Amino acid sequence: TSPPMPPPRAALRRLLPATGIQPIRRRPAPPPPADQSPLPDPYALLVHDPIDLLSSLWRRAFAHPPSTPFPNLSGYASRLDLWLLSYQRACAHATGSFPPRQAVPLPTLHSLLRLRAAALRRHPAFPWGASTHLLLRSPADAPSTVPVSRRKLTARLANAPPPFQDHVVQELLLLLLEPVFEPRFSPKSHAFRPGRGPHTAIRSVRSGFAGYLWFITADLTTVVDALSSDTILSCVERAVSDRKVLSLLKSALNAPVRPGSVPPREKDLDGLSKKRLKRKVLRKSRKKKVLNEDEPKPDPYWLRLFFGFAPEQACHVPEYGHCGIISPLLANVCLNELDWWMEERINEYFRPSRHDSIWKEAGDEGCHNPSWPEFVPSSGREKTRKMDFLRFGSHVLIGVRGPREDAVEIRRQLMEFCERTFGLRPENSSVEIEHITRGIEFLDHVIARRVIYPTLRYTASGGNIVSEKGIGTLLSVTASLQRCIRHFRKLELVKGDRDPEPLPCSPMLYSGQAHTNSQMNKFLETMADWYRYADNRKKIVGFCAYVIRSSLAKLYAARYRLKSRAKVYKIASRDLSRPLRESTNNDAPEYSDLLRMGVVDIIEGVQFARMSSIPSCDYTTFPRNWVPHHELVLHEYIKLQDPKFFCELHKTIKRREISSPQDDVSKMVWHYKVHGVYDNNRVSKKLNEWRSNDEAVNGDTQLLLDK
């Protein structure tokens, strides 16, 4: 028999009141929270190329008038394509490899969607510096299955580094804010900007600071490090009006930072701590370490050596709250107020004089040839008064052509402006005034004035050629040898100061001769490029090559038991290119045989063993209105998109009766079809016409672009 059917639910409801049993009323299920709402399909959102999105943002930012804030950054911030690009950049920094777009798994894309929702909502704020309940983890983080005590867990969380999801959000903010502020920055700033760097700053000094006698050097590091979040936000709000981006940036500035997550800087350590840290690092470097499968490889030794030569002005990177990699950009945003204030002071101070040899008129830009002598031995009341400046990070260099009283007044105005704008006054010792004859050190280069006595030849009345001795000055930009020795001593490659003695390169003790020489050659090539615009490039690069060659000779003498550098040079030659192993072990096969079999590598000789092989200083002229190539392309593209400019260009072509290349090609094809013969003379004639027409059009186009 079949089991009895259960009574219907309506009958049960009628029976329950008779039995006195109250029915259970289920409460409606609460709506799911925002972070647990059903996620959309991420593959349906990945429809755009992130490079195209960023290119459109750069075009819009450069075409937008700088006097008004840039609107609607949330539209770009909500693009999952840009979030995926930020994740790839953060992975490249964490793991050392840039993951392909197609290799990102689906759970990671879902985590990026949750991270995007948490970052773009204004309430509650984004959890910067979170230790638990992370929305996105780094691919290098291994899951921990070992149980730990509560005390150890608390200590780990207190000293945990910033989470990986913070780096992803910082990368996104950098992608969004950098194109907005780049067209608003002054061309006088050269640090932490694309297309600019120490080389552009040095070339600007060589090109535009030839006639200045007094220099003001200001170190505003203490002012930049102590900027308040309100000051930073007020400067950012002048260019950005998007509330979601401003709210995210405000939470990054105001969120508390764990003391254990910030590594102590070297200047904060005392002498004993530095010595202990040095011993610990040395002990760890001598110990053989096997890298994990997903662990990034450390930087090569030659690159670490080059990073040790970073100038003092470039070593300091500001840090604001949880902003991370966007902190230098925010520092430039705040100091941009100082840049434009200095631009106004430069225009007010300029007073040309007919009695001077340079800058006689307002439109005169002076001499831009660094090898041409400036006949300006002194300044006086009848001389031109002019001022110029540049800024590299938090370091300001101001050149003044005028009396020292003017330099003192400019220094006072600079300190008052910092106190009025940033709420902090620089220390008196950080803002100094120096004369050109004493030499001004900037970016490990010394700016000085060299007096020369050229022979002036001219034709006098009557056709006689007269030769007279003149006097003039040249701006000298030389690399600081003492700074170079100090960097080598810090890297433990030399000892002593006045007469430095090279030390053996102990970190390369267990490397082969071919690998060691290759590493040092890369370092010397990089150093030769770093001192590219120094007048004493041959001397400073020759000194670096001497230190490296002597250090390697001492290393090889200890490794192959040759007792002295002289025996190493005798066997391996001056550039250490000959093998040393076959000379110490007669039973081993010849090096040439091993090289032919492919068992050993080719030993490269240490470069710059002779002074003639070192390149000379690059004296290429640097125009005052120079802009990086990407900015030049953006400006030209925006002009070509303007219908008015395009109509002017089209009228120019019609006015000169110039036909386009497409019309000429169609005529040649039609001529070939009609006559059946390819007229070679006609083609060569057309090619010559195209060349002449292109030159004419390029000239007219350049005039329109200049307008």
From TrEMBL:
<feature type="domain" description="Domain X">
    <location>
        <begin position="519"/>
        <end position="571"/>
    </location>
</feature>
<dbReference type="GO" id="GO:0010228">
    <property type="term" value="P:vegetative to reproductive phase transition of meristem"/>
</dbReference>
<dbReference type="GO" id="GO:0010896">
    <property type="term" value="P:regulation of triglyceride catabolic process"/>
</dbReference>
<dbReference type="InterPro" id="IPR051083">
    <property type="entry name" value="GrpII_Intron_Splice-Mob/Def"/>
</dbReference>
<dbReference type="GO" id="GO:0007005">
    <property type="term" value="P:mitochondrion organization"/>
</dbReference>
<dbReference type="InterPro" id="IPR043502">
    <property type="entry name" value="DNA/RNA_pol_sf"/>
</dbReference>
<dbReference type="GO" id="GO:0006521">
    <property type="term" value="P:regulation of amino acid metabolic process"/>
</dbReference>
<feature type="compositionally biased region" description="Pro residues">
    <location>
        <begin position="29"/>
        <end position="41"/>
    </location>
</feature>
<feature type="compositionally biased region" description="Low complexity">
    <location>
        <begin position="13"/>
        <end position="23"/>
    </location>
</feature>
<dbReference type="GO" id="GO:0090615">
    <property type="term" value="P:mitochondrial mRNA processing"/>
</dbReference>
<dbReference type="Pfam" id="PF01348">
    <property type="entry name" value="Intron_maturas2"/>
</dbReference>
<feature type="region of interest" description="Disordered">
    <location>
        <begin position="1"/>
        <end position="41"/>
    </location>
</feature>
<protein>
    <recommendedName>
        <fullName>Domain X domain-containing protein</fullName>
    </recommendedName>
</protein>
<dbReference type="GO" id="GO:0005739">
    <property type="term" value="C:mitochondrion"/>
</dbReference>
<dbReference type="GO" id="GO:0009845">
    <property type="term" value="P:seed germination"/>
</dbReference>
<dbReference type="GO" id="GO:0000373">
    <property type="term" value="P:Group II intron splicing"/>
</dbReference>
<dbReference type="GO" id="GO:2001006">
    <property type="term" value="P:regulation of cellulose biosynthetic process"/>
</dbReference>
<dbReference type="InterPro" id="IPR024937">
    <property type="entry name" value="Domain_X"/>
</dbReference>
<dbReference type="GO" id="GO:0000374">
    <property type="term" value="P:Group III intron splicing"/>
</dbReference>
